[in-house]
Specification:
3 helices; alpha+beta; Imm53; globular; single chain; Rhodanese-related sulfurtransferase
């Protein structure tokens, strides 16, 4: 499944009439240029799950960093790394949801 469709489904599956009023998924740009991704995990099956920090830098424009802290998945990366960041979240979330 394409990553955009997958993240839409993940968001929808966590909407319960209350969660979406306080939590959600935020994708924004940064000025170096690049992306940030913030995904609330509070009141989801991922809330208390361990996430190993993922980071890599291939060059100044091709980099990524992902972590979970304070009930949120944080991802950041270069201008061409948005899909990669979302895929790291999907891989982690899918591995937890299967267990």
């Amino acid at each position: 499944m394409d990553i955009l469709k997958w993240i839409q489904n993940w968001y929808f599956e966590n909407c319960n009439g209350d969660w979406e009023h306080m939590y959600g998924v935020k994708i924004d740009t940064i000025d170096n240029p690049g992306w940030t991704v913030k995904i609330d995990l509070v009141e989801t099956c991922l809330e208390n799950e361990h996430f190993e920090i993922i980071k890599g830098e291939r060059d100044e424009e091709d980099w990524y960093y992902c972590e979970v802290r304070d009930g949120m998945f944080y991802g950041a990366g270069g201008v061409g790394n948005l899909e990669e960041i979302l895929n790291y979240f999907r891989q982690w979330a899918s591995s937890i949801e299967r267990n």
